Sequence to fold (79 residues):
Amino acid sequence: MYFLGLGILFLAMKYLEFGPVAEWTWWWVLSPFALAVAWWAWADWSGYTKKKAVQREDERKQARIDKSREALGIKAKRR
Fold:
């Protein structure tokens, strides 16, 4: 996401001819978009995206369990 944000910022600065980015070639201005595509391809290929999704689900599940235990008056497990 950082590469995408940086690419949008560079694109806006180039279009508005603002700052030093106005002097850069289009290859440098558009390169963060290529890096974003490469990052997303790697994240999907390596399983990084799925791993992070599973971690979020596990955290939500543990929060629900802790909340239920607290409602029943049982102390939550120490981590």
User: Anything to note?
Assistant: The chain is about 75% helix and 0% strand. Residues 47-79 form one domain. The two ends are 31 Å apart (CA to CA).
